[in-house]
Amino acid sequence: MDLSFLDGLTIFAIGSLAGLAGGLFGIGGGTIVVPLLMLFIHLPITSATGNSLASMLLPVSIFGVIKYWKEDLVNWQCGLAIAIGLFIGSFPGAFVVVKIPEKIFTLMYSSFLIYAGAKHIFMKPKLSSGPIDKYDNINRGKWRNLIFFLFPGLTAGLFSGMFGIGGGAIIVPILTLVYKMDYRVAVATSLFALLWPVGFLGDIVYYVNGNISLVVTGLLASGMFVFAGIGAVVSLKLPKSIVKKAFGLFLVSIALKYIIEILIGFFS
Fold it and tell me: How many of the other CB atoms lie within 10 Å of CB of 253?
């Protein structure tokens, strides 16, 4: 793939924006990377998706995870269970793209994001008078209960393989709405889960089909690596209610983007 110097700067900027959002909201950044690669670099959706997923093989969120770890917000046991689910789910997700109509899954995904976004925007946060217990609702120390945390990982892995996203836009809402986890613990745990090369199996599918460029992947990963820590710092400084509402608006905007794309394709 021939890229100009301006293309390289643009790709790095896209990765930087994705890293900032990742540190803020605990997401991998694919929801930002894929459409922007298509818009500014004119990559086809399969290449944009493949490069987005490949950029997350490296520990690009390490500085964000360190910031949350120092605040004792990372539930690493749950994070590892989610990472295992992500690893398993990304492989069938990549195959689903070519086997099942994408529009059906896109509408399902968008519907979930609108629901989760609305809950984050309008639901009043549960206030705690004491310190946050990052093990709340999982029965501390009982590893057999952690098998239930494979579910958000498997679900996010499926969509990760399909849409080239890290999966945080699925993981964080599930952890907060289903498992009733504190929002910042959910963000920190999601980012920790995405730290591992969970999309490796899905990346194999994209790579053998010629949809991954090492140059594009490297530039994206570099931007994510630098800016994920900055996003985490900003998230920890802002009031929790503001971050939750911002995340809700972010989810709804993603859903509307996908729905508009489907409508445009339907009427064109």
Answer: 12
Domain encompassing residue 29 = 5-267
**Alpha carbons 194 and 13: distance in angstroms, whole number:** 20
Give tens-digit pLDDT for 124-162. Answer: 655 444 455 555 545 444 555 567 778 888 888 887 776
Q: Is the pTM of this model over 0.85?
A: no
Residue with structure tokens 């500085």?
A: 63
CA dist 103 and 114 (Å) reads: 16
Number of domains in the chain: 1
Query: Cα separation of 23 and 39, whole Å?
Result: 24
Q: How far apart are CA 224 and CA 63, in angstroms?
A: 10
